[in-house]
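Bug #77: duplicate submission created two jobs. Keeping one. Sequence:
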Amino acid sequence: MATVDLYLVRHGQTFLNKYHRIQGWSDSPLTDKGIADAKRAGERLAHIPFAAAFASDTTRAQNTAKSILAANSTPVTLTTEPAFREENFGFFEGLDTSFTWHTLGSPVGLDSFNAMIAKLTIEKTKDMFRAQDPYGDAEDNATYWARLQPGLDRAVATAADGDKILIATHSTTIRSIVSKFSDKIDISVPVDNGSITKLTVTDGQYHVDFYNNTEGKLK
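Kept job's structure:
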């Protein structure tokens, strides 16, 4: 029986986060708070002997991962994995978050992204973005998982029994993974910048140990 632990860390705050803009596949630098978010995550994970580390190809995830690994006593090479990108919000990227959630959600009585996730599910929310994107660039749920699941499979396949793996990634990606592998966690609760979510994978079966953890050292 092979067991692998995955530590998913949301990147530190970016300028687009600070300005309440939808980010997705777009990118922006970490703010001073975002640098501190990444440093704090590194301090909390410093005692975890990572066997491998992955980050999406965005600079915000890359720099968060590098900060975490700099605090770790185990030397690990960071691997870039585009599969761990955020959801592609297409036409809506860069727009004000409140305006966008109101535009898409208010016709069905929902006025925030969290409310849309709680009522419709995160999977159907992706499909809504795709359906409303005039350019057709936003990912629907099937497209999203067609690129994310192979990334998870690759990370787990390269691991040995007992390995611990760091993945620096994004809010909706973490929410989506937790939604797929747990029906007991309320993912309408937002993922904080620099927070840590842990999954255990045993013989290909995923279990969510905790979600959006922001305090204390971790096992």
